[in-house]
Amino acid sequence: MTAAAERSAVAEWSEPDGVVPRGTLVVLPGRGEGAGVYARLGRRVSADGYRVLVLPAPTDDPAQTTERVRAVLADAGSGPHPRVLVGSDTGALFAAGLVAEGLAGVDALVLVGLPGSLPAGPVGWSAELDARTACPVHRDVLDRQVRRGALAEPVPAGWEAAAVPERISVPVLGLHGTADTVASLDAARAWYARLGVAELVSLVGGRHDALNDQSHRTAAATVVLFLERLRAGLPEIAHVELARAARPVPA
């Protein structure tokens, strides 16, 4: 299969045998990405009982992505509730816009590296890799599966205007790297502050591909904790009674 064919493919990860499914994640990739970029996330989250379906990047064909999302949400057999729309980069902006414009059937949003109106992104593949991630394993995946130069492309016209926070009524989890040079963390803070029910988690030292960067385990765990609270209808499940600074454990 060619790289272009891989980017247009749909991928799915299901719960292990004997595990009752706990929810469904529909993932919308960012610029230049295909489903294979999210294989590590799919394997990890599905191991906890959540089905993961990764669609092609909405920048490739916005109308087709919208129809695919609607079809998944309308199909009772597509997976159990809660059904959560997950987006990264422009996929996050597109997902937020769909819900803001009234898309039904979404129980929550997970938005990663939410972009806004910024100057052109990094030029050259080496610079783009550096902007995306510091994880050597993920860099290798990107080197094989991402369309080079995609991050230098502008955010599609109208997508930012459609993603009006005040029109989003479902719970939202935001993940954003503190070292993201593609999407401003300050702009993200201002956007999430306008939401009704939301939490924004910054990943220390994280770059733009926050789900797949060096802290990918923490990112996946944060998503699962959010999903568990969503299922339980609780603002908190595990409460930290005491927190003291600890010395790092030697590697």
What oligomeric state do the depicted chains represent?
A: single chain
Distance between the amino and carboxyl termini? 39 Å
**Rg over CA atoms:** 17 Å
The helical percent reads 25-40%
Number of domains: 1
> Could you tell me the mean pLDDT?
93
Instruction: Summarize the main sheet.
Output: 7 strands, mixed
Q: For this structure, what is the CATH homologous superfamily?
A: Alpha/Beta hydrolase fold, catalytic domain
Tell me what you see in this structure.
- The chain has a single domain (3-232), classed as Rossmann fold, CATH 3.40.50.1820.
- Helices cover 34% and strands 15% of the residues.
- The protein has helices at residues 3-8, 39-47, 62-74, 90-100, 125-132, 136-145, 159-162, 185-192, 216-232; strands at 11-13, 23-28, 50-54, 83-88, 108-112, 172-177, 198-203.
- The longest helix is centred in the last third of the chain and has 17 residues, at 216-232.
- Strand 6 (172-177), helix 8 (185-192) and strand 7 (198-203) form a beta-alpha-beta unit.
